């Protein structure tokens, strides 16, 4: 039996164990905010050690926010591959909207339900069992690192970003296990992690007594903001410069009014309103270019509407990242997927942002932005679920891809 066949059999023999471990991760709350990964970190560490992965570092900017780096050193001088997953989840939202409890991992009709099941505790479990398979097989020329990190759901300042800025992340390539399906499972190997421009537009009007608004010249900031929001929704995307990209699809995504606030109280004519927006960017779109485009759009809007007084406030820009389609780790994933799924998924761009920014832009590690079980539209929603069988598929593909990228045979 070849080493690869032996590893696949090793994972198959532990399918029920793998699913039960995923259930234990879901049953361990790691909601962010407020953010506390200590309990789930203990569950992960115990299982890693039970599977023979004993070299585990716990690193944290503060006590309640640990990330784990588990290392499986090779016997030779081959490359280092990092498999990365986050331990935290979004809050569950309205508990009455859940058919079963967010932390009650129920399998129904082949789907494992629970908070974080697809985003991304199934992938974390699969990565850990892939590490176990490689630990049992041995013979690696390179090193496998599992980066199981905190705080991804709130921006990574206490997770991958902190680890990168502190100099703790080192690898020749990385794969992040975010759910890569939008319309179907295993839809794509996502080479691009789209960036984000988060900004507000502050609109100023006339704050005065509301009883005289029809008697004196004054501007209702709420109404002015509404007119501007409608125009932004219809026209802003056309103002954004985006260099052509083979994986660019329909271009950037513009979300107008993800938050809005206006006015003070009854009896007061609104003198200020604020509109929060986000743009999901593609490679080649820089902070400078997007800001120039936004200012040009607002300038035109104010020229067309003399009552409009709008100010741009840029809050955050995270650049997009991209790994080359012919990178050896991409080829290893395609090959592994072909073995397990029967064919390799297409290459694409992940719709959102991932920890690829921290790994690639800050730590300099070429990173596959997303390749993991589950559907992205189910993430951050009540009754989140992942197909139980996809956890096994993920563990097999991670193990095979790592072996082919790292082993003497694979090199």
Short summary:
The protein has 411 residues and is an alpha/beta fold. Helix content is 33%, strand content 25%.
What does this molecule look like?
It is a single chain. By secondary structure, the protein is an alpha/beta fold. It folds into two domains: 3-194 and 320-406, Zn peptidases (Aminopeptidase), CATH 3.40.630; 195-318, Alpha-Beta Plaits, CATH 3.30.70. 33% of the residues lie in helices and 25% in strands. The chain has ten helices and 20 strands. The chain has a six-stranded mixed β-sheet with strand order 1-2-6-3-7-18. The longest helix is centred in the N-terminal third of the chain and has 21 residues, at 117-137. The model has no long low-confidence stretch (mean pLDDT 96).
In the residues, how many domains can be counted?
Answer: 2
- Please give the CATH class of the largest domain: Alpha Beta
Approximately how much helix is present in the residues? Answer: 25-40%
The parts where pLDDT drops under 50 for at least 5 residues are none
CATH superfamily descriptor of the largest domain: Zn peptidases
Order of strands across the widest beta sheet? 1-2-6-3-7-18
- Class by SSE composition: alpha/beta
């Amino acid at each position: 039996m070849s080493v690869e066949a032996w590893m696949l059999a090793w994972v198959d023999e532990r399918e029920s164990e793998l699913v039960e471990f995923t259930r234990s991760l879901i049953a361990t709350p790691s909601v962010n905010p407020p953010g506390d990964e200590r309990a789930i970190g203990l569950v992960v560490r115990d299982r890693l050690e039970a599977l023979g992965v004993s070299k585990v570092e716990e690193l944290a900017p503060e006590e309640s926010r640990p990330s784990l780096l588990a290392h499986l050193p090779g016997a030779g001088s081959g490359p280092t591959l990092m498999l990365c997953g986050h331990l935290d989840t979004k809050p569950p939202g309205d508990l009455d909207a859940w058919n079963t409890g967010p932390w009650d991992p129920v399998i129904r009709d082949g789907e494992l339900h629970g908070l974080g099941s697809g985003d991304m505790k199934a992938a974390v479990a699969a990565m850990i069992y892939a590490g176990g398979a490689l630990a049992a097989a041995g013979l690696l020329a390179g090193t496998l690192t599992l980066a199981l990190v905190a705080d991804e759901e709130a921006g990574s300042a206490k997770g991958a970003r902190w680890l990168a800025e502190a100099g703790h992340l080192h690898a020749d390539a990385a794969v992040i296990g975010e759910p890569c399906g939008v319309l179907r499972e295993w839809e794509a190997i996502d080479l691009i992690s789209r960036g984000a421009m988060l900004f507000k537009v502050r609109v100023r009007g006339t704050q005065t007594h509301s009883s005289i608004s029809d008697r004196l010249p004054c501007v209702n900031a709420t109404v002015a903001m509404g007119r501007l929001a409608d125009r932004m929704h219809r026209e802003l995307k056309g103002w954004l410069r985006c260099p052509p990209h083979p994986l660019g699809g329909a271009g950037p995504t513009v979300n107008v009014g993800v938050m809005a606030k206006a006015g003070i109280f009854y009896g007061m004519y609104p003198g200020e309103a604020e509109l929060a927006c986000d743009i999901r960017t593609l490679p080649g779109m820089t902070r400078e270019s997007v800001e120039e485009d936004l200012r040009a759009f607002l300038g035109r809007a104010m020229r067309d509407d003399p009552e409009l007084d709008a100010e741009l406030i840029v809050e955050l820009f995270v650049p997009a990242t991209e790994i080359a389609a012919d990178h050896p780790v991409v080829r290893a994933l395609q090959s592994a997927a072909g073995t397990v799924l029967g064919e390799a998924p297409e290459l694409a761009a992940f719709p959102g942002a991932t920890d690829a920014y921290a790994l690639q832009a800050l730590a300099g590690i070429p990173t596959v932005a997303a390749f993991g079980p589950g559907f992205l539209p189910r993430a951050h929603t009540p009754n989140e679920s992942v197909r139980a069988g996809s956890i096994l598929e993920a563990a097999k593909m991670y193990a095979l891809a790592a072996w082919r990228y790292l082993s003497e045979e694979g090199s």
